[in-house]
Structure formats: C-alpha cells, structure tokens
Amino acid sequence: MHSRITISPELREWILATTRAGHGVPDVLRLMKENGYDPRQSRSIVAEVLKLPLAALHASTDKAAPQGLRTKHPEAPEASIDGHAIQVSLSVEAPALRVLEGILTAQECAGLIALAQPRLQRALTVDSEGRQQVDHRRTSEGMFFALNELPLVARIEQRLASLLGVPMNHGEGLQILHYLPGQAYEPHYDWFDPEQPGYGQITAIGGQRIASVVMYLNTPEQGGGTAFPEIGLTVTARRGSAVYFAYEGGDRTSLHAGLPVTRGEKWIATKWLRERPYRNQRPR
Description:
CATH architecture of the largest domain: Sandwich
Order of helices and strands: HHHHEEEHEEEEHEEHEEEEEEEE
Distance between the termini: 58 Å
Number of strands: 17
Number of helices: 7
Strand content: 25-35%
Low-confidence stretches: 62-66
Shape: elongated
Strand order of the largest sheet: 1-2-3-14-10-17-8-7-4
CATH superfamily of the largest domain: q2cbj1_9rhob like domain
Radius of gyration: 21 Å
Structural class: alpha+beta
Helix content: 25-40%
Mean pLDDT: 85
C-alpha cells in the first residue's frame, strides 16, 4: 500500500496557476525537475492536483515532441473581454478563421497609428535562418512594439490573450504596417515550413506559429482587404475589426495575401502567436 503524497498549499497553487496560464503537463513536469523534484514523484503530485490518471501523465511525457499550446477559436455571436464586446461576424472551419468586429476602438486605432508613425521603416520578412530581410513581395512600411512596451499595447495584448486563451508571452511583438496605393503583400503562409533549413533555429525561440490576428486600424478608401485564395474569401478592411486565423499542422488553406490598396491608405496591426513562450520579444 502506497503512502499518500503530502503536497504543500504553495506547490498546489503553483501547479494550478501554471496550467491555468496555458502551460501543459510536460511544461509543469519539466519546471519541477529543473527545481529539484524527482520526476516520478512529480508525476504523482501533478496527477493528484489536476485529478488526472497517472497513466495519462506517463503518456504525455513519453512523446518525443509534445504538442505546444493551441488557441481557442472565438465563437459567435459575441465575446466579452473585461467589458469590451467583440462580435464574431463570420466563422470558417478550414482554416479556423473568424472575422471579429469591434476588437479595437476608434481611439485605440488612432493611438496605435500615432505611436507607430515616427518609427516606420521598410517592412521586413523572416528568412529561413530567422533573420529579418527585405522581400519584394512585401512593399509596405512597418515597425514592431515590444511586448507590454506601452499601456495601450499592453491593454490590446491582454485582450487578445484573454480572447484566444493564450498567455501574453506566447505572442510576438505587435507589428504595425502602413500601405500606400499600389502596395501589397503577395500570397504567403505565416507558419514556418519544416522543410526549410533554418526551421530548427527559428522555432527554437517559441516553437511554431499557431495563429495570426490581423487588426485593421483604418478603412481604406478602396482595396486593401485580406484574401484567402484557397477558400475564395476576401475579408474587407474596416477600422476596428480583425481577421483571426489558425493553422495547426501547417494548414495550407491558410494561404493569404494583403491585397493592393487602390485608393487611400491602409494601416494594420498584426499579432502572431507561438505554441510556446516567445523569447525574442522585439525582432529587428
């Protein structure tokens, strides 16, 4: 007969808080091992606290590459985050895509544009080695905010984290892009191709990208929507709205493009989410 494990209130609360923050059982067990806990005892402790069968924990730790965190897809008709109402006006299942109305207020849109303008540079893409590079497919200007860099940025980051069930530290820094007439971003994927030689390096700082949120900071006079050619869908750019799409496993239906602005200008804020905490919070 085995004796019952004594679990301190502090350890119990830490396990619960860590899992509520979106970390899986393998992460909890790894952190406990790093802090001197015996792995066999750790599994028993976590099973007791989370009310899980011990066999399930053995299965989760025996995998060579445990799955990272996944986002929670917003469901219609409305989500309320700290009193901020966000409407889901369109849902697609493949890829997992939602059009979100009212994700930003008019004041928040104007604030992001004003903060970004002095820091705009030619927008870059990420090459196969994880470096920022000029790419002829992307002709806009842009900049990055660091995570939590400013109160407005932090408020929007937390809203997205709450809406999608992903901790803030799983996100890359918020990117602001500015498009003038004729400027566009040709069809591309946001996830990283495992067949590329630099895949291991670029995913070492947070794992694979799992989802994107493109938020529209203004309404262009004409053009500038986000097209998904594989499913025949174009999302209209409207101030305060956004398109969220996830692409677990490298979903090729998530191919998308920023269509040319034909009149006026377009401002967007893009958030990329990773399966694990992202260490490089201010790419340059």
